[in-house]
Amino acid sequence: MRFERLKKERVKMANTLPTRDEVPTSQTWDLSTIYPTDAAWEAAFADLSDRLDGATYFAEHVTDSGAALLQALQYGLGLMRDLETLYVYASMKNDQDTTNSQYQGMFDQVQGLAARVSSAIAFFDPAVLSLTDAQWHEFKATTPELADYQHYFDAILTQKGHVLSADQESLLAAAGDVFGASEKTFSILDNADIKFGTVKNDVGETEQLSNGVYARLLESTNPSVRKETFQTFYKSYIALENTFASTLSSHIKGHNFMAQAHHYDSARQASLAANQVPEVVYDTLVEQVNQALPLLHRYVALRKRLLGLQELHSYDLYTPILGEPDYAIDFESAKAEALEALAPLGEDYLDIVNQAFDSRWIDVVENQGKRSGAYSGGAYDTNPFMLLNWVDNLNNLYTLVHEMGHSAHSYLTRHNQPYQYGDYPIFLAEIASTTNENLLTDYLLKTVDDKALRAYILNQYLDGFKGTVFRQTQFAEFEQWMHQQDAAGVPLTAEVLDQAYADLNQRYYGEALTPDPEIAHEWERIPHFYYNFYVFQYSTGFAAATALSDQIIQEGQPAVDRYKTYLKAGSSAYPIDVMKQAGVDMTKPDYLQEAFATFEQRLNEFEELVQELEQK
């Protein structure tokens, strides 16, 4: 591995960050491949704005004939395709320097245009749903080009039994702000209005708590700092528990009402129907995770022992049990490591990775005003760009291969599917990125000899599994329970929610965790409970990626070939069918059992390594 010892003088202070103009061109993304100049973007923006005038004509004639339907569809898709390109350019220009008022303005402009485009093409889905079987038969016979869009139409037509009359749908749409008010209230309350106290940090300084400071101080190696942070933080939530219960209960009621109004058996069925995900996928996840809880209990007990604590509390779950490795890896070395780690995916995949490196798909280093974090983004007609804020450490190597997974997935989808299928649903999105992370972990464990570094890599994997598969499934289980209770007429009061969440949390983490009264209130601060059965996809995606990467490593080319059918499929089929072609049937427990077997294997090795390190 190409690591260099980290020297203190290499650490940059925030005030030494370069301005955008000072960043070497080679370390920036090349957005001129989208539009050569800002003026070209402005011209494209004006052109798309003018084309919106045609919407009225297409809305009036969309069901006249098969040819009219095809023309209306192509008109709408053309608007969306060009809008996405405009959006990517403006948003990425804004992200590279959020202090640039010109790009702030362009981003605001394109957001407004997006709303206008959405309104202009809103006629299409209701028109498709209004067609009779006789009309469909005639349209397909007279316009064979419609066959190229068959799955696109099928996805719309699955809603047919769940769409109300035009007047009823219009009424519900007009009430959208009402149904969304509870989530908006939660967001304002949780991000702006809630007031936290102050705590002492690791060096004895007083800090004002916030969500960000809370997360940082829970990683403190000082137990007193962690405890004070935890208790002070939750004191603010406890004071507002009835308000948070009201916002969450109202939102759950809204989900259940809309599902009932659209003739679904439950809110969960309504949510999963959007991507034709069978409910058995959700139930199988919860069942299998519950069966595997002894593995989590074992890992939690190991954490307690390694931290040397008589009692392990909820505020002890995030402090590192191993120190940061005393190594660094620069970006050039990380590129070489990424290529080695991803080699099992074949030369054609590595060609995409090299193209990303050589053709400036990646905005590498931090600069003043640059958006924090990392992401992969792009549109059908652009490169799949990546934003990084590179730091010379192992975590950033993982970030690089993670985002590369998204970008390669996007590249292969767009080069193998027409525009109407040239993207993929969120249910599939994290699988490619996490598969890459797993391949990197396997590569590192095969090439790193240093026991302390191996232990760190294993611990990072185990923590990621814990936080994604176990914790997100805990949220998914609680979300389903809340909807069921409301549907049964049980009031979701703060007391009811507190007790249920405390019991669930203790069941997940086991006897090694000493229960804290504050953790019963964690449900108050989880935004995912407002996202309508979204969170379970983190767990299924991570587990599927674990199974796929294991297949790639163990089987070789046959598994790689199956995996690439997934990378190329986009939305040309429903996600469950795409995953079956890749070698994972998510309606059955096998992929989850494979994932837990990998977790157990790595937990075994981690336990052995830390024992050896303790004996030194």
TrEMBL record:
Instruction: Look up the domain of life of the source.
Output: Bacteria
Cofactor binding comment, as recorded: Binds 1 zinc ion.
Q: Which Pfam families match?
A: Peptidase_M3, Peptidase_M3_N
Which enzyme type, at the first EC level? Answer: hydrolase
- List each copy of the Peptidase M3A/M3B catalytic domain by range: 217-597
Record keywords, A-Z: Hydrolase, Metal-binding, Metalloprotease, Protease, Zinc
Q: What does this protein do?
A: Has oligopeptidase activity and degrades a variety of small bioactive peptides.
Q: Which PANTHER family did the record assign?
A: PROTEASE M3 THIMET OLIGOPEPTIDASE-RELATED (PTHR11804), SACCHAROLYSIN (PTHR11804:SF84)
Can you say what this protein is called?
A: Oligopeptidase F
Q: Taxonomic lineage of this organism?
A: Bacteria, Bacillati, Bacillota, Bacilli, Lactobacillales
